[in-house]
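Aim 2, interim progress: modelling of the inosinic acid-bound target.
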Amino acid sequence: MKKVTILDKEFELFIESNTIQENIKRIATDINNDLEGKNPIFVAILNGSFMFAGDLMKHVTIPSEITFVRIASYKGVRSTKDVKEVLGLVENIKDRTVVIVEDIVDTGHTIEQLISQFELLRPKEIKIATLLFKPEALVKGVKPDFVALEIPNDFVVGFGLDYDGFGRNLRDIYKIKP
Ligand code: IMP
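Predicted structure of the complex, ligand included:
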C-alpha cells in the first residue's frame, strides 16, 4: 500500500517492513554485544512498542527477561506539564541492567520522566532502545542508546505507532501527507 487514510488524515508509505526488520536486527546485535553477561531486563512501554519489542526479542540471544508496562499520563498539580507514572511493573529491578523499549523518542519528555521513575527503584543502569528517534525534535538531553531508525520531524504511524488509536497494525511505517 502506497497510501493509507486513517480517520481524517492521509499518510504515505515512508519505511518499508524489510528496512524496519533489518534495522531491528542490527540493534539486536549491538544489544547482544554490549549487554552480554549483564542479564538485562527489557521493559517495553505499551501500547506503542508491542510490535517492535516482539521483533527485537526474536534476535536478542543473550539471557534476558522481558516485561510490559503502561504509562498513565495526567496533569501535574503544580505545573502545566503532564506527569507520567509507570503502571504494572511487578519485577524487582534493583541492581539490574534495565533496557527501556520505546516506540519513538520525539521531544524526549516521556523518556526523561520514565528514567527518573525507574531510578527510584535503584537499577544498576538504564539503557534506552527505541524503534524511531526524531533528533530534530529532541529538547531534553536524553539520547537513546539503541536506535533502529532516525527520522525527520514528521508525524508517522504504523508498526505500533498510532494516530488517535488507529494504524498500529500496519506492517510498514507511513508519514503524514503535508
Ligand atoms: P516525547 O515525550 O515527545 O518524546 O514523545 C513520545 C511519545 O509521543 C511516543 O511514545 C508516542 O506515543 C508519541 N509520538 C511522538 N511522535 C509521534 C509520531 O510521529 N507518531 C505517533 N506517535 C508519536
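The chain has one domain: 20-176. The longest strand covers residues 65-75.
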